[in-house]
Design a protein that fits this description.
By secondary structure, the chain is α+β, with helices and mostly antiparallel strands. The protein has a domain at 3-36 and 62-86. Helix content is 54%, strand content 16%. The protein is built from three helices and two strands. The chain has a two-stranded antiparallel ribbon with strand order 1-2. The model has no long low-confidence stretch (mean pLDDT 92).
Amino acid sequence: MPTDVLLKSVDVLLPFICVMCNASLGEGVLPNSQKTAIITPVVKKSGLDPDEPQNYRPISNLTFMSKIIERLVTEQIQMHLKQWFQG
């Protein structure tokens, strides 16, 4: 889903996003649909021959949901580690 569409509909979508994130965290599994990325080849440096495959590097764009879940897991791990080191 394009980001601008998501931002315009965030009030409606937020409860569903919350349920999806909680389900993923509760099950400890990232859905297969969220494990794929759109890969775009980009020329490494300007001036390189675009006809040569070795002159490209991949840019991977992850799904919005996988990024959200990744941030949630990161926050949970950081909170856990802070409590563990303080206690």
